[in-house]
Design brief:
It contains 14 helices and no strands. The termini are far apart.
Length: 301
Amino acid sequence: MSKLVHWVQAARPLAQANLAPPLLFGQALAYRLTGRFDLRALALVVLWGLFDQLFIVFANDYADREHDRGGGARTPFSGGSGVLPEGKLRASELRAAAWGAYAALGILSGALAWWRSPWLLGAWLAAGLLLWAYSYRPLRLSYRGGGEFLQGVGVGVVLPLVGYAAQAGELKGFPWAVSMATATLAYAGNMATALPDYAADMCAGKRTWAVRVGVSRAAWGATGLTAGAIGLAVLTTPPIPSRGALMLAAALLLLNLGPTPRLGPTPRHRGSVLHFVFFQGLATQALLLMWSALLVWGAPR
């Protein structure tokens, strides 16, 4: 039983909050624009998100095993699962599990490609390439200042495309301009979740925005990008009712973010930093969920 608990810890269930909303959003777009919706496809997309999550968290923990041994503070939002530095699992076990999750994702993607759209096999390949570029040498862009961009592409573009293609059966008609908003949200999310790791990332030479410009400036940048993404969402979305409600609800959430010059890298700032990360993530996911609901509400019957 303790081994199972360790695997649950390694799986980082909270990480699903980053994957499920953009997958749902892509399906809502497909329903709004094509009128197509299949509950079986919905179930398979949920499973696709689960396998993708396991691949990401297991592979990232393995790739960052040396960095994580430095003893940086782990939070619900950042710092890895901790199973390797705590000795709960072996690195070889985690590596094998990552490959297993990616293989399962490939099998599922192949089935969806045969049933719904061949583009879904491309999404599987994209997921692997983006993870490799993010965490593994020779690129390892999360250490070189490119992790935000890769998360913007993976979470903000690839995941909505998976949801859309699974329901619509094609990518024809996909409103590509909408990707500017979703990619910006995902980029800002990466900036925010790196804030609690400032000290460990500084020691490891990991060039996140917090390391490059400081915690407070990075927080303001993430807030500005999130606000900008809200504006892009309103400008690029297909016609839906109550756009004003979408803007107002997201704006009210943004008021709770409260990034201030008091945010900083020392332990006494930890509570404020975690408060900021939580509300930035809440604003992002709430925007995607409300946006999805309004797309479905406004779809032709």
